[in-house]
Amino acid sequence: MKVDSCCIQWYDFTDMLHEIDLSRADLNLLVLFETVFEEGHVGRAAERLNLSPSAVSHGLGRLRRLLNDPAFLRTPRGVVPTDRARALAPAIAEVLRGIRSIVANAESFDPARSTRRLVIGAPDGVSAVFLQSLLGLLVSQAPGIDIGIRQLLPVAGETLPERAWSSVFADLDARALDLAVIPADEAPARFEKRTLYQEDFVLALRRDHPFLAAPSIDSYCACSHLVVSLTGDPHGFVDAVLARDGLSRRVALTVPNFMFAAAILPDTDLVCAIPRRFAAIYGARFGIAITDPPLPLGQFRLNAFVPKVALADAGIAWLLDRLADATR
Question: Which of the 8 DSSP states describes residue 108?
């Protein structure tokens, strides 16, 4: 049976901790290890930890005795970890994640006093829908909480939703995101799913566009089209819908997000399919007309996903509830 080397190092490290009298060990040395490992420089690590460089150097001496290894070697540009330090880094990171989780859950969460930063991942046409309402809720209920929005994109060329968004679930597992809102219905059993709203697509175009006077499937296909695509790939989901009826269109322009598309449309002859809720909020602001497409482009649900274990964190559970309020 093949055993992963990371697992071996994990067991080596945890066995080592069991052998140490923890009442005499300073677990802050693990934080020191993590910071120096990430920074690769004693001075920068000292600034990040609000310590003096000499205090960090002294701590590294104690760390070497704890690990029975030099841990970090000095170079003209900073420090580099030894082979043993590299091997132990994943296990030390896992131990620190567990400790931080215990501490976070031990403290009662009060949104009115909290100063946490929480990260939400979503496609831009989704985050633009809920963000304004969510910010309003934060102002009134949790003025000290900061929010990070990270744009999520499906895996390029992948049409199956469970595969298209697989990287998102990996980021949730790694706690790079606190929760994610994506157009996927299935997820591994370890994730909690909450449906926020139903969505479909409408057409956005300038207010005096000829298509509005004589809308039809033929006139639609004859238009020049704009597709939102971060990679610049002109083939979108609309092309797949058209192809089922033996139809096609010309994609004259691709842009990386829906806000960019909405800003461009008023001064062009282009037509773009955009989410209905996004259109309802931003159509008037950008001065664009909104109309239903001449053929159904499909409906889908926007679901929020969060690891079930993360819901033990009252702050994340609270954020999930507020997100539901913001999209209601």
Answer: P
Alpha helices, DSSP H only, in the chain?
A: 5-19, 28-39, 42-49, 53-67, 83-106, 124-141, 161-164, 166-173, 217-222, 237-244, 258-264, 276-286, 314-327
Burial 278-301 (b: 16+ CB within 10 A, else e): bbebbbeebebbbeebeeebeebe
Q: How far apart are CA 292 and CA 101, in angstroms?
A: 48
In this predicted structure, what is the pLDDT of residue 312?
84
What are the two backbone dihedrals, phi and then psi, of residue 185, each rounded to the nearest 5 degrees?
Answer: -100, -25
Positive or negative: CA dihedral 80, 85, 90, 92: negative
Residues of the chain by 3-state class (helix, strand, coil), percent to 5: 50, 20, 30
Structure tokens at 227: 């597709």
d(CA 68, CA 62): 10
pTM: 0.66
* Cβ-proximal residues to 2 (8 Å cutoff; 6+ apart), any chain: none
Name, in order, each residue with C-beta under 8 angstroms of 201's C-beta and a sequence gap of 6 or more. Answer: 238, 273, 274, 275, 276, 293, 297, 298
Nearest Cα to 193, choosing from 286, 66, 37, 305? 305
Condensed to tens digits (0 to 9), the pLDDT of residues 96-121 reads 887 777 666 656 789 999 999 999 99
**Helix/strand/coil for 41:** coil
Backbone angles phi, psi at 140, to 5 degrees: -85, -30
- Neighbouring-strand partners of residue 251: 225
Sorted by sequence, the CB contacts under 8 Å of residue 24 that are 6+ apart come out as none
